[in-house]
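Late entry, evening session. Most of the bench is empty. Finally got around to the prediction I had been postponing all week. Sequence below, unchanged from the version circulated by S.P.
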Amino acid sequence: MSNAMTPKQINGPAGRFYEVNGDLLPSVTHVLQCIAKPALVGWSAKEERKIVVEAATKLYADETVAGDLSRATFVALLEGELGRTRGHQRTLRKAAEIGTGTHKLIEWHVRTALGEPVGPEPAVADESLWAFMAWQDWAKEVTLEPILCEQVVYSRQYGYAGTMDLLANVRGVPTLLDWKTGKAVYPEAFLQSVAYQHALVEMGHAAADVGAIVRLPKTIGDPAFEVVDVPEDFDELFATFLATLKLWRWWYANEEDARQRFDRRRSGAA
């Protein structure tokens, strides 16, 4: 019998990690956050502006606060209307909930197809159900044959871990699949895929011949799905992932050092 421990996911302020045989390995998605996303800054500002305008308009139309207000009173009322969570964060959180619901529903149906024990079918929001229905259309079209579902994979050689969505035969070809709910598939998804592909092989699982990202609709009324194949230059993509992992380790070490210095100053230590 193997003495290997079951990998345990650990989420905290420092990010997402997996405990594997006593080692704490960063998740692939956590590592990839080191890659800058300039478009996200503009989007965040746009979302925040929109929500501030909506809140100010609502206050203006509210008869209970009509009349002359001091600047301080108006600011206080506006901050109360906005709440403590920033607008773009609320939007991101809602999007994450849609994605989580979609993943749960797909996982439930795949595990059922594999004959694995599952609980009740998860209840999800309409947006997640819409995305799942698009996934069903795609799965039928490609004659999907699941092999491994929501498998934790890790590389002891390089020191990272993650949870892949599905290894399956797609039109008879072993394929590593990743589900995305969003407007587009971004290049970081390719790095995530090759990292998981390497970990699968290192752990002795069946190898995937190819990788694919399946983008599912996030809004009702968008019935389409989009399949983006991971480029075939595996070695170059994996080298890029390893470079990102090196950058993440540098960043994390410096962040940890800064946190420790801050804690010492706060506690009054020298």
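Two things to note before I forget:
The longest helix spans residues 234-267.
Helices lie at 28-31, 38-61, 71-82, 87-114, 126-141, 188-202, 234-267.
Will write this up properly tomorrow.
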